[in-house]
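Objective 1b of the project was to move from sequence-level analysis to a structural picture of ligand recognition. The entry below was assembled by the postdoctoral researcher (A.K.) and checked by the PI before modelling. It contains the amino acid sequence of the target and the SMILES of the bound compound, adenosine-5'-triphosphate.
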Amino acid sequence: MLKIHGLKKKFGNFEALRGLDMEVEEGALYGFVGPNGAGKTTAIKIMAGLLKPDEGSVEICGKDALRFREEAKDQFGYVPDEFGMYDNLKVREYMEFFASCYGLSGLMGRKRCEELLDQVKLSDRADFFVDSLSRGMKQRLCLARALIHDPGLLILDEPTSGMDPRTRMEFKEMLKELCAEGKTILVSSHILSELSQMCTDIGIIDAGKIVLSGNMAEILQKVNDSNPLLIRICGESRTAIGILKKDPRVQTIAIRDEDIIVNFHGNRQAEAELLYSLMEAGIPVSGFIREQGDLESIFMQITSHDKGKVVLSSEE
Ligand SMILES: Nc1ncnc2c1ncn2[C@@H]1O[C@H](COP(=O)(O)OP(=O)(O)OP(=O)(O)O)[C@@H](O)[C@H]1O
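Corresponding predicted holo structure:
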């Protein structure tokens, strides 16, 4: 649905994008995450045709979006990180104005606007001035506007920043519903935990490059596989430690309270073999589990340098 290859962008001597590659599959809810200043907005503006890259390509629905900008525009809806000023427009007028930009006017246009305002739960605000809406409502209105021409792809730049936790949750539910209806969604944030529960795929950008990407469940599995095994033995653990030491996949062994903490390089089959070797030796194993994956600590590790501040919880 969206393919980005080798995207580079300099502002003066500063390289904001340094060869960005990413791919968003059709039907994905793709989280585009990175610390402040990583290059998310720059990349998104290039995708949306608002900024020209120095190098690289953007393909939307198989078409070169940098060359065929008008055609590409019909394929996606864009929600920017900052909302423009529309102090003289009421919500309904705002929607109808954008509908007319896509050739939807008269009864058809009004009907489409009503449907969308209903979908983003703003029907009761149709006669309010846009400027009187809260930030969360403005973002929902922006989402409705981006959906006017029924695009297959939605690109949202930090849509939930500045929202309170409840409004965030509702907005995220809305995105999940849209994804379930068949939309492909790219949503950016500098808060990993914000996206990790709802996204099917994730791309972590740091200093203008993707540093980790893939299917969310697979990444979590990989993180899990690199976490230590926690083994609990009923009684003394000396014999168990002797067996563990003999296994070449065991890297380190430590004791924490009642648990033996084992850094173990192996998949589930290998874990089962290790457990079997303990059981076969008659060791009463009462616990055998991988420590739970902590995606956020990975995010911290790969994006931690002085210039970027990473916010890990939704309580900013
Ligand atoms: N027009 C510009 N002129 C000069 N530098 C710019 C310009 N736009 C962006 N930058 C710089 O490029 C880098 C990437 O900025 P960008 O806004 O893309 O980051 P971001 O990941 O969206 O950050 P945030 O999470 O804070 O919104 C930053 O160092 C920023 O200062």
